[in-house]
Please model this.
Amino acid sequence: MTTTGTTPAAPHFWQGAFVGEEEAGRLLTGLPAAVEAALSSPLDTQAVLAACEALSDCLLDPDHPVHARLAPYLPAGEEPGVLAELGRLLSRRELTRKLRRELGSAAPGRLNRPDPRETVYEAWAPVGMVAHIAPGNATTVAPLSIVEGLLAGNVNVLKTSGSDTLFTQHLMAELAGRDPGGALSARIVVLRFPSSRQEWLRLMCAPADAVAVWGGETAVEGVAEHVPAGCRLVEWGHRISFAYLTADAWSDGVTLQALADDVCLLDQQACSSPQVVYLDTEDETEVFAFAERFAAVLGARPPALVGTAAAGAPRDPAEEAELTTTELVARLEEHLGLTRVFAAPDGAWRVMADTRSPLTASPLHRSVWVKPLPRKRLISTLRPMRRYLQTAGLAGSRTDVAELSRTVLAAGVTRVTPVGAMLDSYPGEPHDGVYALQRYSRRVAVQADPDRFSATACLDDLTQPVVLPRPDGPLLGKEEVQELNGRVAPADAELYFRSGGSTGAPALSLFTYEDYDTQMHAAARGLLAAGYDPAADRTANLFYCGGMYGGFISFFSVLERLGGVQLPLAAGPDHRATAQALIDHRADTLFGMPSYLWQLLHAEADALRAYGGLRKVFYGGEHFTPEQRRTLAEEFGIEAVRSITYGSTDLGPLGYQCTHSEGGVHHLHADLHALEVLDPEEDRPVAPGGTGRLVFSTHARRGQRLGRYIIGDLGREVPGRCPCGSLAPRFELLGRTGDVMRVATYFLNQRRFVALAGERGGHRGELQILLGRTEARERLTVRVERTDAADPERLREVFLSGYPELRSAVAEGLLELVVEAVDGASLERSPASGKLRSVVDARS
Model:
């Protein structure tokens, strides 16, 4: 289907194509079937965000061709700046914030466990189809309403006025065209017809699960008769707002100027504009005196720009008649002592003082009622109008504002602002007392068998893979990412972490708290998949802490989100005190770096073996060798040893292990990242199953676009579906690029030394390689942790016999090979993370 081009004969946009009257009528009769077909596949929120972000970038660039394509369809008098405003509202930042505020997550449709201790899954699901009845000549309302429906996953059918331009149709065509999968096109229909065309309105509403209507009571009533039983009617109707001033405030000139701002901005055309000014008094003379002073303030304001976008459309005869009639009646009532009118000679503004308190609608266009209303009568006076109340602008002392806020909210007001800010808004603000996305969604739940689903964090992982946009752009290394960090806006740099520096100089990483929260929830889901049981496990957090290093803090956050029992001990030099704390508090699960956990267990082996309560180890940053795992099981009774997460300080959690994962095999956090495996030397994919550089592209990071980041690890994609049932892709870690050493003209791999030491040499401790030089040749020193089985001479023979390249380098006289046994504490480690430095190159 095409998404470009139109003629006056094709004013309707139907699932990706512009169609004419006859075709639209035919398609309307088949709307129920079209809705069912579209709903047969769920809509991924990420697809909506990606398309909106792409369109946002275009709209924010005034030179982009999209501006030229859309400008002819802007309503008369509308400024082109509205395109930039739409671009801001459609940005990933704004929409993600909206999703989080209204539905609690940037991926609200995924069936996750709200309480990780229970196998109960909840999500926000679309209601199905939303029919949107848009107001005439409200440029941004119609397209943003569709976007709200899309964020909730719905099929959206929108009606614009018969007199509207085709702006919404063409904007939605641009949006749909930025979703290569076509899922958005299938969920967007925009029709243009007058409300008098009742048959089309009936066909449009018949299959709807929710109908959203903008307008007054007449408009709502005209649509309500077509709303089927059980269908939600979401009214975005006209509302009335007022200002309320205490005695201290109404005598303050600054307050009067602020009030005039609220009245004159948009000439009261917004629902949040004040139509009535209430004074906290019963004294009529104070009301008349205030009205006169305020009239002088209004009279000093520049005239309204009638006919511009800022002031709305020119007044029609009905509006002029209402203004004249309202003022005339108020002047007649002056003779009864009920009112007093202060008005501009040319009718540009009017202040009408009225001694009666009940709320009275204003004829707008800078026409304001001033009335007395002592706070003791606030609720009784306003509550009868609660259905229509929206904003109350308050001016008074801090105590007054706090007290009056509660009172006006009880009376039916939905938002309270300072006087002078009544028309202001903030991202994610509820509209008329509700969140739109919740009105277009259902909260759904699935209860699952605890025995079969204890390690399933998200039900959707068993049914459909997450598909993120294909990565593009240049490859990024650590230096490029550090340079990007320097350009992060201050508003997006809320949390600072430094890497442990085990593979180079420590690097700085910046996060927003929202991104950090998303990542911690992802890591928590990964731990559930790995067999962590938050309802039963008692965990000692033994990661390193301090110096802006985030290991301990991150896993404290993960356990907090899981609701697991935690002993936040942190890694420290006093192994005896740590072991005693484990015993005293009955810890059965350890979180930490393998090198530290290995030292702790062996330093306090007698006490911990006698305790016998350790059951699980979750490690990060390094790996346990197969021999070390065997030692943990045989000597300490540890039943499960798994990776706690695979990740980096820059990108956060990248992968997780399930209960079927062995060695370095991990599932990808596919809802956060896309993975490529590229040739070690070139920017091209390796053959399926081949080993290459792991390159990650992170999505949904506020203020940062970390695409195609070369993380420094080697690995391969693991084909086939995992026995755990998850469709999340799998990959196997095969060492760091830094583990491959250029020594004596040969490339040697540190992991090969580790494997030979464990498999052939029976070594169960740690191993580190130190590279140096002698006067005649290079020297490679293998430093192994001193144990009963650590025989340096035997290990040297194992390395030479099992590693042909090493044997050749030694035989050719290019390399001196030394194996020495040392205390584990003497091996070089990163001071921040405690991670063992696998290769120490001292040749320079």
Summary: The chain has a mean pLDDT of 91. The longest strand covers residues 709-718. The radius of gyration is 34 Å. The domain at 744-841 is CATH 3.30.300 (GMP Synthetase; Chain A, domain 3).
